[in-house]
């Protein structure tokens, strides 16, 4: 524990020193953008320049990433902090709370105009949605990653990072919620999903659509987000150190209640059921979910399909069962909203309102 605290203090000190050095050379005509590094493939390395799978994530530090894209200094005053150095499959609730608090602290400073967060792609969409709900500023916050490690001959990280800094530096990105910059596209943190295991165009918003493009290193917007976010949400994580435990139970042919019963016995406060189709409840599962609700667990019906509105009182009588439906959120994003909702209330009607609001 003492070592962990010392390491965290050293990281904070290094981040401060880098920020001071950057500020001394700042161009007053440019926006000040802070890059918060968390690891991931964008900071990964492989055995050879052609290694694009089987590489090691989170090995390159933030200063090396910044130095690899010197062109960024022409579009923003860039400083960096190494917040974490992990592969994103290891991202936890505690990591999210630490990151969100740091983002809010930085954005409260007048001399910080935007934030870029480098992140592994596996859970990037989840971190983006969490921040979309808890960041308390209209200033741009942009998540960026890469599908190929920094050592690859065709690494996509440098151009993605350049675009992300350009996006965070433009006033036009303010008030649009947390954004994702990947593959020359701009996506909303609420709606985007990773859709392919390895391709560089993996981040998609297939039905609701991306927000815009990058061309020549400049962002162009074509649509707005409509769901409330950031400064418009009711969630305050400033005094939170833990989030209520919420898990996801996945449906499939011949599924039984084993996972649901295990989660309830483990003490979850909320449970997202990723049902088939329109969130259908298999006959073997329905009694277990009803029993969970009777024990006080808040149940959210979602779908494993990945697109579309989850109809309330469609494949199940949600009013009678006292369930919540996920609207258009994926199961993994519904889990995030449910955790935050449970920090405010256990009332399923209020929680359903939140799912239709955010």
From TrEMBL:
Organism name: Massilia soli
Outline the extent of the Asparaginase/glutaminase C-terminal domain: 246-355
Could you tell me the superkingdom of the organism this chain comes from?
Bacteria
Enzyme class, broadest EC rank = hydrolase
UniProt similarity note: Belongs to the asparaginase 1 family.
NCBIfam families the record matches: asnASE_II (TIGR00520)
Catalytic site:
41, 121
What's the protein name? Answer: Type II asparaginase
Record key words, sorted: Hydrolase, Signal
Q: What is its EC number?
A: 3.5.1.1
**Domain L-asparaginase N-terminal as annotated: residue spans:** 32-225
Q: Which InterPro entries match?
A: AsnASE_II, Asp/glu_Ase-like_sf, Asparaginase/glutaminase-like, Asparaginase/glutaminase_AS1, Asparaginase/glutaminase_AS2, Asparaginase_C, L-asparaginase_C, L-asparaginase_N
Record's signal peptide: 1-25
Q: Which GO terms describe its molecular function?
A: asparaginase activity
